Task: structure prediction
Amino acid sequence: MGALAKIDKFNSSIAVDEKLLSVDGAETKVTVMYFGLGIAYFSYETGNLASYMLPEESGWITYDYPTAGPDIIEAISFYKRTTQKQASFVNLPFRIN
Result:
């Protein structure tokens, strides 16, 4: 599969990945939910700190949005099918540059 085909496939899907982020000098594991190359969300497991990321020329730029933590965790749990709740609307932050 060519590079453009892989980019197109990623850009038209939802992907979940775990990564280590450095916060206040400490490495913390977070789960990131990517909506293609348009936007990504992550929250710490506790839901007390959360952010969304937008792609820029230099890479993904992070925008803090602490109150979205519980909603981001809920969206990720729906995607991973680890929740017993019925799927519902989840209000996630969005920003257009």
